[in-house]
Amino acid sequence: MAFETTHVETRENGRSPVRIGYGYKRREATLLKAGAEAVWIDHTPDRAELAFLLDNPKQIAIRPGDVLVVVSQYDLGPARKDMARRLKRWGATMEIVDTKAKPVREGKAKGGRPRYYDPTPEQDAAIRALWNSPATRKYVRERATEIMGKPIAHHHLRDRYTEKKD
């Protein structure tokens, strides 16, 4: 035949309902990760395995309560338009599982690395007073390092405390 397919049966006999995984150019592990028990994979554009699934539901035992698991609706190709109708007629359902979904974080997500120079309001007020004093920049930097408890570079102070010209 002109197509290349993989079929792996991983369910135990007599178990119902079954999660049947189908994928187009997918890895078996991806469908198993999505919760499929039986895996059907097409590797060619004609999607011969999907055609077999659709045309022979009794041979592969699509029963009421079974779930067709796909990673993307586009794996179904043109058949995706009437897939839900056919499955409903057979008493089965379809589940689209995003295996690359990232966990949802609560609150506002902070991107990037944390700021190196991030003084508390008290530290900020003390260092700002030093910066605006007649003290030398070297002295201000040394005192800022003591106040912050870590080395502070001149550019940290300059960028934060120098007034911007319009």
What summary fits the major beta sheet?
5 strands, mixed
Enumerate the spans where pLDDT stays under 50 for 5 or more consecutive residues.
1-13
- Provide the helix percentage: 25-40%
Q: SSE string, helix = H, strand = E?
A: EEHEHEHEHHH
- Assign an overall shape: rod-shaped
The CATH architecture of the largest domain can be given as 3-Layer(aba) Sandwich
Q: How much beta, percentage-wise? A: 5-15%
Structural class: alpha/beta
Please tell me the overall pLDDT: 78
Describe the fold and architecture:
With 166 residues, this protein is an alpha/beta fold. The chain has two domains: 92 residues, Resolvase, N-terminal catalytic domain (Rossmann fold, 3-Layer(aba) Sandwich), CATH 3.40.50; 41 residues. A five-stranded mixed β-sheet has the order 1-3-2-4-5. Helix 3 links the parallel strand 4 and strand 5. Helix 4 runs antiparallel to helix 5. The chain is rod-shaped and about 90 Å long. The termini are far apart. The N terminus is likely disordered.
